[in-house]
UniProtKB/TrEMBL annotation:
Lineage: Eukaryota, Viridiplantae, Streptophyta, Embryophyta, Tracheophyta
Keywords: Growth regulation, Transcription, Transcription regulation
The protein's name: (wild Malaysian banana) hypothetical protein
GO MF term set: protein dimerization activity
Pfam families named in the record: bHLH_ILI
Keyword Transcription regulation recorded: yes
UniProt GO BP: regulation of DNA-templated transcription; regulation of growth
Signal peptide from the UniProt entry: none
Length: 85
């Protein structure tokens, strides 16, 4: 990205950091005002990793349920339809 028109201003960066902070559960609960962009990015990475672990765990549980469930049951059909979405 070169040229003047493509530069992001400090104000835009601050706005993006503020929006990101509002999306993180820890930052919302803490509500201590400004956090450094570096710390916020680290928290974001940690949060995304925890979400990945949660998804993996839920996926494993769902796979286990599917193995034990009658494939023609209404519950199995609901799960299949959710997975297709």
């Amino acid at each position: 990205m070169s040229g003047r028109g493509s530069r992001i201003t400090d104000e835009e960066i601050n706005e993006l950091v503020s929006k990101l902070q509002s999306l993180l559960p820890e930052s919302r609960r803490r509500n201590t005002g400004r956090v450094s962009a570096s710390k916020l990015l680290k928290e974001t990475c940690s949060y995304i990793k925890s979400l990945h672990r949660e998804v993996d765990g839920l996926s494993d549980r769902l796979s286990g349920l599917m193995v034990t469930m009658d494939s023609n049951s209404p519950q199995a059909e609901i799960i299949r339809s959710l997975l297709r979405s």
